Amino acid sequence: MANNDVVVSGIRPTGVPHLGNLRGALQQWVDLQEKYPCFYFIADWHALFGLEERSREIKENTKKVLATLLAVGLDPEKSTIFIQSQVPEHLTLFTIFSAITPVGWLERNPTLKDMVRAEEPLPYGLLGYPVLQAADILLYKGTMVPVGKDQQPHLEISREIARRFNSLFGVEFFPEPQAVLNEYPVLPGTDGRKMSKSYSNVISIEDDRETVRFKVRQMITDPQKIRKSDPGHPDICSVFQLEKGFVDSAYSKDIYDRCVQGLLGCVEHKNMLADIIWQYLEPIREKYFYYLEHEEELWKIASYGNEKATKVAKETMREVLDIIGL
Length: 326
Ligand code: SF4
Prior knowledge:
Elements: E1 7-11, H1 19-33, E2 38-42, H2 44-50, H3 56-71, E3 79-83, H4 89-100, H5 103-107, H6 112-115, H7 124-127, H8 129-138, E4 144-147, H9 152-169, E5 178-181, H10 209-217, H11 238-243, H12 249-260, H13 266-293, H14 295-324
Parallel strand pairs: 1-2, 2-3, 4-5
Iron/sulfur cluster (SF4) binds near residues 221, 232, 239 and 259.
């Protein structure tokens, strides 16, 4: 990576964050802030595009997501942490990019079909979602974008838009952002599918110790392992897969061996996992609730980040308007 690398990424405020967010995307954000200038934003415009009818929940969720970002260890001095809608330049650049983006690029977006509800007409904003994403990234001349695999096609559109802008106006202004894939394992939820709010299978940052224990107890294990002495199959067990997100490989191997040799029972293992998760979650949860109880402090941190982001965004837009001759 070059020295002028800039990391940009956003999170939609669509609900209370869960373990899958904390141990996945957000842990990667924390790692990256040690090495690069980072712009991390709460993507409230994107949330609006996805659930316009629940727009009143966005502000409350924004507060919760912001508290989470701070609780997991993002440092407002190292990273620029801000709220997308508070930096209007995102929409200005979105409008300019809308003028140069062929509709065909957006129609072939493979995730569009999943996002559209079959019985409803396609909102214009949802079609243009990747154009706003391009504006989000390129406003800060982002070169590195931490993404999940499902977001990669959107990033390809960001690159195409950057190329098109540069070629139309004969400049080398916008970089072509590259994906930084997350190396943390995707955590299974309590039903074994990917942990996701839409599957209602999450362990949330707000869950207390008893709730964590209860949820882990409900998890599906190897159905053939009835007694402790039965040899189990950890590879098909979601307890084992979830645990891998929190322990090192030596610990995991030991558990694996004990399970297949019939030396570990599922109830015992679930209690162990609940303790491991709680050990990880408790300090984060404490900080999270601290920020929720100290709203003034929380919004002050957001204002600080909004100002830092606005300064960079305004400078980019000044240059962009100059390039396009407005
Ligand atoms: S002992 Fe643990 S890894 Fe083995 S099947 Fe039971 S819960 Fe899964």
